């Protein structure tokens, strides 16, 4: 069975570090692997995307492959035929499948039945490529440290869950500032708490979450597929807006992160997003580099 990335916990801690090392060497152009030479890779999207679509298509081309963009209009995953049948058919044509969709179980089923690697480009549950790219960005800006303190403010969503998954593998002091009614996934919380080298805090006090943090992170209050809940979530999460006053509670050297797209003026102010501590566009760039490393790793294992 090929290796796939459905969520970060599909890797061991050692493999995560191998991917960061591969990413660094590929970004520096020390090595230029072409494991997709002569092959095609599918990029399946049943949700919108700017970064994931473009960075995967560019990354697949840079690894020597040809990217095929597929939307749900064509394949109607799970409707025209089962996910398992689609996985087996796609595997006859392709070297790799990247998918962004709603149900995490669809990605797991695709990975279970495909005979080529499957990479999760975001589900309702997790967004593993984003958080691996973000941790790599923190390494670049802050240098290695035994344990970063990372404050996440806002909705307990796929981004929060992916940070928790990473904290279950490598030491992170992860603080989540969110409303009592918008917590992250319980299983991801438990998994992270199971790592004795990580510290996990869930609080409804934004200042407690941010105090002396190395990284302050936020994301939209209503994710794709939940935009009808935007008003309700907005009223619950307004207190967690990442603004200059809140950022002052963090370490003076803290970096500001957002996976993007941002809803400026809601979860983050212009002043913070465009300010000197913001590394949001480095994060976007590193999606390309880390995803290339993930694809090389999966194709070689
Ligand atoms: N951060 C991210 O995944 O962006 P897109 O939704 O534009 O792909
Ligand atoms: N939580 C957001 C992330 C977008 C990259 C969403 O799922 O819409």
Walk me through the topology.
Blueprint: H1 13-27, E1 40-45, H2 51-62, E2 66-71, H3 72-75, H4 83-93, E3 96-100, H5 104-113, E4 118-120, H6 128-142, E5 148-153, H7 158-169, E6 172-177, H8 186-193, E7 199-203, H9 206-210, E8 215-218, H10 230-237, H11 244-247, E9 255-258, H12 270-273, H13 280-300
Parallel strand pairs: 1-2, 1-3, 3-4, 5-6, 5-8, 6-7, 8-9
Helix pairs in contact: 1-13, 2-13, 4-5, 6-7, 6-13, 7-8
Bound molecules: phosphoric acid mono(formamide)ester and norvaline (NVA).
Norvaline is lined by residues 122, 127, 157-159, 219-220, 223-224, 259.
What does the model show?
There is one protein chain. The chain is of the alpha/beta class. It has 2 domains: 8-127 and 287-300, Rossmann fold; 128-283, Rossmann fold, CATH 3.40.50. Helices cover 43% and strands 15% of the residues. It has 13 helices and 9 strands. It has helices spanning 13-27, 51-62, 72-75, 83-93, 104-113, 128-142, 158-169, 186-193, 206-210, 230-237, 244-247, 270-273, 280-300; strands spanning 40-45, 66-71, 96-100, 118-120, 148-153, 172-177, 199-203, 215-218, 255-258. The strands form 2 sheets. A 5-stranded parallel β-sheet has the order 7-6-5-8-9. It has a 4-stranded parallel β-sheet with strand order 2-1-3-4, with helices on both faces. It is globular, with a radius of gyration of 19 Å. It starts with 12 loop residues before the first helix and ends with a helix. The structure holds phosphoric acid mono(formamide)ester and norvaline. Phosphoric acid mono(formamide)ester binds next to helix 2.
